[in-house]
């Protein structure tokens, strides 16, 4: 089993608004800019630029349950599963994001990824709450 870390952030907006924003992959670099500097659609696939190079990203099918799972396929052909959810939290939302430490990932790299995701979630909160 892989080591994991689940992070969450409360956002003072309706879950449907949060889901709509995050489910549009073109918004990925807007809120997750620590991990994804840019995104483009090419031959029906979404290509992102990351600090480690180009990767393909896809999102689970749209659903009414708030599931926003991402699948990131690196240039080395390794697909990384990134579970993500948005759920009701009172009048707002809770965004829940799980990060896995892959077999080839050092402790330092995992800690850095955690810091990046924390920053990205804070950025998402700021963007959504300012709309």
Please tell me about this protein's structure.
The chain has 131 residues and is of the alpha+beta class. The chain has one domain (3-130): START domain (Alpha-D-Glucose-1,6-Bisphosphate, Chain A, domain 4, 2-Layer Sandwich). The chain is built from three helices and eight strands. It has a five-stranded antiparallel sheet with strand order 2-3-4-5-6, with no helix packed on it. A three-stranded antiparallel sheet has the order 1-8-7, with helices on one face. A hairpin with a 4-residue loop joins strand 5 (70-74) and strand 6. It is globular. It starts with a strand and ends with a helix.
Keywords:
alpha+beta, Alpha-D-Glucose-1,6-Bisphosphate, Chain A, domain 4, 5-stranded antiparallel beta sheet, single chain
Taking the sheet with the most strands, its summary is:
5 strands, antiparallel
- Going by CATH, what is the homologous superfamily? START domain
Q: How does the helix and strand content classify structurally?
A: alpha+beta
Strand content: 35-45%
Report how far apart the termini are. Answer: 40 Å
Query: Which CATH architecture is right?
Result: 2-Layer Sandwich
Unreliable residue runs: none
Rg, Cα atoms, Å: 14 Å
Helix-strand topology string: EHHEEEEEEEH
Mean pLDDT: 94
Note the overall shape.
globular
CATH topology heading: Alpha-D-Glucose-1,6-Bisphosphate, Chain A, domain 4
Please give the CATH class. Answer: Alpha Beta
Number of helices: 3
Helix content: 25-40%
Strand order of the largest sheet: 2-3-4-5-6
> What's the total count of β strands?
8
Task: Tell me the domain tally.
Answer: 1
